[in-house]
Amino acid sequence: MTKPVVFIPNRISESALALLGERCEVDYRDIEEKLDDESFFAALQQADGLMVYSRHKITPAVLDKAPRLRIVSNIAVGYDNLDLPALTARGILATNTPDVLTETTADLTFALLMAAARRIPEADRFVKDGQWNEWRPSLMLGKDVHGATIGIVGMGRIGEAVARRAKGFDMKILYHNRSRKSDAEQSLGAEYVTLDELLSRSDYVVLMTPFTPDTEGLMGARELGLMKKDAILVNTSRGRVVDEQALIQALTERQIGGAALDVFQTEPIPKDNPLLSLPHVVTSPHIGSATRETREKMAMKAARNMLAGLFGERPENLLNPSLLP
Ligand code: GLV
Question: How far apart are CA 121 and CA 137, in angstroms?
Fold first, then answer.
């Protein structure tokens, strides 16, 4: 029996590669940068399975060039890069990598929250630029995290992991979600509120929703206007959950205290984006799940999903379950 061909256009862990290599022919590109379109589409022609990070948008036009494709294994929890209805209509399985990145992404979310609260990047620059000539009583005054109110918009797995960290900091936890989470209410003392109430009561507003048509532009001018004047917006979900122009305006006009952002409307963020020159904005380059340990686990999970899909089993993280009995 000929082995199925798995196309992987970017670097993954060696153990995941070895696992796939036991049962598949792997067309692997050991590169960090994005493969050029010509090579990508040439390889896609032969692929039974495709394993990608979310930088690759899998649209109907891409699928038109993938005549043999049976499964797309996304190495990410978010899957807004996949046109799921188009994949399903063509009978192509789609999978993602939840759970293994939950704690790591919650760590980064909290790191950004604290960095913005205590002005860490600004303080670091200040010291290294040789500006620290004397200690002053009001030098780099920040905002307390402990005892403050955190509002988590989207109480899924990562939202709950952020809430657990917040509990350790003695924070009051508010959340807004499509459904009530009684476990989180009982174990963390989280209080379910409307989005408007969350925005007006929170010192830190943390966005943890997936990107869907319902959450696109969820944080617009009106919502930002409901936040406290010194509140900080933290976004490690997807950039387009926020109306970025409205955020720039809210920060410019000091309607809110600051923002800590790992994700942006356009990534990489254009170098002339005003967010990059506004004070009290902390940024990182979409690295929520970027630790060595977690990238390894994500690649292994994506490889197992791939093998299951190719060899007639049900992948653990199937996104279009209607395709399998
Ligand atoms: C990263 O953004 C992911 O969705 O895993």
Answer: 19
